[in-house]
Amino acid sequence: MSDYEEEINIIQYLRGYMDIFEYKNYILGLIFYKYLSEKLEQNMNNLLKKDQLTFTQANQDPNLKKHLKQNALDTLGYYLEPELLFKNVLKTKENKIETLQKALKEISNSSLGHKSHETFLNITEGIDFESQNLGTTKDEKDKEIEKYLEGVSKINLKIENPTYAGELFEYFLNLFVSQDKRRDLYYTPPEISTLISKIVGDNPKTVYNPTCGSASLLIKTAKQAPIYGQEENPTIYNIARMNLIIHNINYNNIHIEKGNALENPKHLDKKFHTIVSRLPFNAKWSANRKFLEDPRFREYKKLAPKSKSDMAYIQHMIYQLEDDGCMVVLLPHGILFRAASEEIIRKKLIEKNYIDTIIGLPANLLHSTIIPTCLIVFKKSRKNTDILFIDASQEYTKIKHQNKLQPEHIQKIINTYKKRETIPKYSYLAPIEKIKENNYNLNILRYVDSIAEEKHIGLDNVVENLEKLDEKLEKIDKEIIEYCKIIGVKPPVKRKN
Questions:
Q1: Residue 148 burial class via C-beta count within 10 angstroms: exposed 0-12, middle 13-18, buried 19 and up
Q2: What gap in Å lies between CA 120 and CA 78, rounded to an integer?
Q3: In what order do the strands lie in the sheet with 427-430?
Q4: Residue ranges of the alpha helices (H) in 390-489?
Q5: Of 218, 213, 252, 251, nearest to 234 (Cα)?
Q6: How far apart are CA 341 and CA 300, in angstroms?
Q7: N or C, where is the chain less crowded by C-beta within 10 Å?
Q8: Residue 495 has pLDDT above 60, yes or no
Q9: How far from chain centre, in Å, is Cα 428?
Q10: How many C-beta atoms surround the C-beta of residue 459 within 10 A?
Q11: Per-residue pLDDT for 181 more than 90?
């Protein structure tokens, strides 16, 4: 049974028949609002403890209110009047929805002119109070929103525990993705995030993801480092910022921008120590010839095809990787061996000695596709010229309809990655000469023969098994005949003499 069984029951009941992709915006948005309210009140009450005042009482003093607001903005990045806290909006008898809308807007408006404004700007705009899915009349919509408020009020965020709310938010994200497999591009399963975080290590100086989705991979990887990212989908962009904040990451360390990182990069003036990404597989891009003069692509003299932006994102990230940095990208296997312009770019990456390790992962790890994937590890300042191939595609646990990496599977990959050793049927440390012999084709099966040898079965064993099977069939036939006699029908089998 899940640790969040009660919370799951609440949100499943509240959903009704609403599309899961839209529904998540209401539930995650209201949970986020409840978290901000409780976090603010906790901080303010702790600040006022020595004065034996509550936040509500202190807010009635104009001078004290000004001091409290400035403290909240400096420490948390936002401020809400006590009457706009979640618990007080819930108690409102009249104009509840209007008051809720005012509170959500105030989260953004309160930071206006403060350095936290970019982090909180329009962060809850995904909650659409005019959606027809809430109802056709204002009264129906109000009742539906009020039902959501009542339901979320029953979810205990355990605000005194600094990690609980973030873990719960992450769990709900995973739950929503599992129920909407068409749109899981914004979420990296926790097992893969854990594996990537172990590869990049515990001390990243800065972390960047150009396709950050819900920011789950960034959160797992960053530790205490400043976080940079870009997300094209406006709804997921908002969820990413919520996810970071609810994980107790200070607004000073959050630098998430909206937009496409290939066509409109927002952090191109920076280099990053750690870069991680789950790329949108085979996503299209413009491949406009103007990019041949772009410093990200210029030295390759080739652009990735319009139909597949995978290699373009790799070029983009390599350009922004610091010389002593590490970059890990989750990709489909096609990137390892596709021809044409991608082959030319891949050859250039190998010649520049940027590719460190390639890890083949099991199929069906992601919600939206059953295809096997791989991780590619890039480093710019490598002293060795070999490439480590790890085929971990056969080591997983099947849970219901999904394959999962267990801790022992992850640890085996990490141990092999760190030792850079050849293990029969599992890994191979390929010298550059071997890569050249294969014409820069990085298909893992060219380097690791992971196919298990078939067991030899003698003819005597085959005959013995057939005789045992025949005995079982004869016993079953007899039972069928007896049952048919009881119910008075002709048996479908004949008794053997």
A1: buried
A2: 8
A3: 254-258, 227-231, 207-209, 272-278, 321-332, 373-379, 355-360, 387-391, 427-430
A4: 407-419, 432-437, 459-487
A5: 213
A6: 10
A7: C
A8: no
A9: 29
A10: 7
A11: no
